[in-house]
Amino acid sequence: MDVKGQVALITGGASGLGAGAARVLTKAGARCALLDRNLALAEELASELGGMAIECNVVDGEAVEAAVDKVVATLGAPRILLNAAGIDVAIRTANDKAPHPLAEFERVIAVNLTGTFNVARIVAHRLTSAEPLNDDGERGVIINIASVVAQDGPIGQAAYAASKAGVQGLALPMARDLAPYGIRVVTIAPGMFETPLASGIPQDWIDKIIPTVPFPKRWGNPLEFGALVQQIAENTMLNGEMIRIDGAVRLGN
Ligand SMILES: NC(=O)c1ccc[n+]([C@@H]2O[C@H](COP(=O)([O-])OP(=O)(O)OC[C@H]3O[C@@H](n4cnc5c(N)ncnc54)[C@H](O)[C@@H]3O)[C@@H](O)[C@H]2O)c1
Asked: Of 41, 187, 226, 253, which residue is least crowded by CB atoms under 10 Å?
């Protein structure tokens, strides 16, 4: 689809990768709705970009329904959904003192996996009745964010890796479910990108990992991530797949 003039709904759009994508899509002519639990940050970016900000927890079904209705009423149907809201924890499965707290496992699954599906199902439903955009009958694209952690499985990442492997698993069945409506589903698996979420990673781990990135030997920039989001939106043949954007890194233990 031509991104110009389209509405993009970006969860977690106030920060990091979501914010990077919002900048790129706005520059390409899209209008962005930033849905985030951090309203102050979302408003700051929305006023800079000329988009709209909505406070919402992606796990809350009713709140997401209301937020999507607000976007449709204010900007129009979002033809691009980027599910970028996410959280991380680093806890081993068990040690000699305690097992992994179950509540922490459930919290990560809730935001990263259930939250992603929650927003996707509601936006997809709204799009089923939208006008097709082109001769292919395309109505929209849903872009979910997994992580290379889903495949590489580093230490302390059981909850996060499981949540992101779940997001990877959504791509093909959702693409097949939504194909009759011309809605594509693509997953991105980023490697190491410099964002506030990544700033929670211990420095000694970062000092070990960045030199193992084959090329380029540095953090990814959220604008490079945003460029991939734009390409996925524009390229109708991308569907039902997960794309790694990682400088060829493979995270060991
Ligand atoms: N930064 C990386 O290196 C990296 C690598 C792989 C995957 N990812 C994934 O990319 C996504 C974005 O990460 P980021 O690095 O930009 O993080 P970030 O912390 O900079 O941004 C995440 C945003 O999501 C929002 N958010 C969190 N929980 C929410 C909820 N329940 N409801 C609504 N908003 C919520 C936060 O307020 C924040 O604005 C996450 O899913 C993350 O797991 C990041």
From this structure: 253
Q: The tokens of 155 are what?
A: 């230490």
Q: How many domains does the chain have?
A: 1
| Domain membership flag for residue 250 | no
Answer yes or no: pTM beyond 0.70.
Answer: yes
Mean pLDDT (the chain, rounded): 97
For residue 84, how far is its CA from the centre of ligand 1 (angstroms)? 6
pLDDT single digits (tens) 136-185: 999 999 999 999 999 999 999 999 999 999 999 999 999 999 999 999 99
| Residue reference for tokens 């970006």 | 10
| H, E, C per residue of 65-82 | HHHHHHHHHHCCCEEEEE
Residue 251 lies in a domain: no
Question: CA-CA distance, 239 to 203, in Å (whole number)?
Answer: 36
Give DSSP secondary structure letters for 97-132: S-BPPHHHHHHHIIIIIIHHHHHHHHHHHHHTTSPP
Q: Which domain, by its residues, includes 74?
A: 7-242
Q: Which of 11, 17, 218 to mutate to test the pocket of ligand 1 (most atoms within 8 A of CB)?
A: 17
Q: Which of 45, 195, 213 to mutate to test the pocket of ligand 1 (most atoms within 8 A of CB)?
A: 195
> Residue 219 carries which DSSP code?
P
Domain assignment present for 247: no
The full DSSP string for 2-17 is: --TT-EEEEETTTSHH
* CATH code for the domain in which residue 96 is found: 3.40.50.720
Could you list the active site residues? 160
At 208 the three-state DSSP class reads: helix
